[in-house]
Every structure is written in C-alpha cells, then in structure tokens.
Design goal:
The chain has helices at 19-24, 41-47, 87-92, 111-124; strands at residues 6-10, 34-38, 54-57, 75-77, 97-98. By secondary structure, it is α/β, with parallel strands linked by helices. It folds into 2 domains: 1-48, no CATH class; 50-131, SPOUT methyltransferase, trefoil knot domain (Alpha/beta knot, 3-Layer(aba) Sandwich).
C-alpha cells in the first residue's frame, strides 16, 4: 500500500463505471483515487504475482481479517456481491483467505462496507501511512 492505497479494478466488474453511476453513488472523490483497470485476473497476476501479501476475502474462511499481518504492499481481493471470489482461487490459496466475522442472523455486508473495514485495518497496521 506504500504511499497511497491503489484501487485495482479487474474485469468483468459487477457494477458500472459510467459517469452517471459514479455520480449517483456519491463518489465525489473518484477523481482523486489512484486506480487501474485490468482486462482479467490473469492479466493482473502477470504484473502482480501472488505472494503471501495477497489476501482473499470470503465468507468461507474461518480466519478473521484482523489476524492477518498486512504489509506495506499488500493486495486485498473482494469478489462480486452476488458471487464472491471463485472457489478455485480460494482453494489454491487457503492460508490467505480471510473473513469479516458476522452474526449468523445477518446475510452479508455490501462490497463498499467490506472494503472499508479491511482496508482500514491494513492502514492501522501500517502507522506510517499518511492521508495526503
């Protein structure tokens, strides 16, 4: 995450990036984000090979996100709200799957909330991080 967090959007996305959709979602900081778009997961992994600093968030893990040791350059993966992360990816990286503990009575958190929870824990673990 060194310096500033970067948003990597990997296609296919489960949401629209049209100007209208961005404006409607209230993302008034969109133009200030450091963001990249990738055609596919394979394309992303060619440039960013999986290491122990790649973490996959899923409801299928028993390891809470706050038990992970997030380094200053880590990658947090979140799947689509309707499908999650592909099972093959989770099965191939079992030691790097994390979950956000929730009540069994709750269905799930939305994607933006989930990202915010885990990202801020990663930032908390790296106190040198500055918001500038």
């Amino acid at each position: 995450m060194g310096g500033n967090a970067i948003l990597h959007l990997i296609h296919p996305l489960g949401f629209s990036l049209s100007e209208k959709a961005i404006r409607r979602s209230g993302l008034d900081y969109w133009q200030h984000l450091h963001k990249y778009e990738w055609a596919s997961l394979q394309d992303f992994w060619e440039r960013n090979p999986i290491t122990t600093q790649h973490f996959f968030l899923t409801t299928k893990s028993k390891t809470p996100y706050y038990q992970a040791c997030f380094g200053d350059e880590c990658f947090l993966y979140f799947g689509r709200e309707d499908a999650g992360i592909d099972e093959m990816i989770l099965d191939s990286n079992p030691n790097q799957t994390l979950t956000i503990p929730m009540s069994s009575k709750a269905r799930s958190l939305n994607l933006a909330t989930s990202v915010g929870i885990v990202l801020y824990e990663a930032l908390r673990q790296n106190p040198w991080y500055r918001f500038d």
